[in-house]
Amino acid sequence: MEKNLKKVLVLGSGALKIGQAGEFDYSGSQALKALREEGIGSVLVNPNIATIQTSEGIADQVYFLPVTPYFVEEIIKKERPDGILLAFGGQTALNCGTELYQNGILQKYGVRVLGTSVEAIMYTEDRDLFVKKLDEIPMKTPKSHAVESMEDALKAAREIGYPVMVRSAYGLGGLGSGICPDEEAFIKLAESSFTFSKQILV
What we know:
The protein has 202 residues and is of the alpha/beta class. It is built from 8 helices and 9 strands. 42% of the residues lie in helices and 15% in strands. 36% of the residues are buried.
């Protein structure tokens, strides 16, 4: 851990159902404990009161607020952390951190991304970038197209041929993903996926 860090913001997993994504609660708790062992102050944002990481004594300061760019920026303004950890809150934290980075919020307040870089997160979450990265190494992958409209999605599905698989980008727990045996099923799933994701992989 960098020795010049005085305070680090950890993005928690946000609102989850009981029994869902416990690994993020566990990993986030361990990250907070590691910060404490290193003598680094910790700030946690997580609206879920039913987690270990929001328990008393785990983080120095806890904000029970949504893990969204608006609220996280307000916390950054108030707390002025030196760094931020994005990889311990699952998809919600990854999406929020990516947006803060792309909008220049982290740079504006001098907050360093610790651990997994935003570029690495984007390479794994953006389906088009991910496929291009895999193409750079000798890794066989199924034929696919990352698309951002229904028109392009239908074109891609027809070119590949049914059945096709749909995988939404930046989606929680595989939401908006599935196998479509025909065009009717594809249209239904793709339209649903585009309601919460700007990009899908066909």
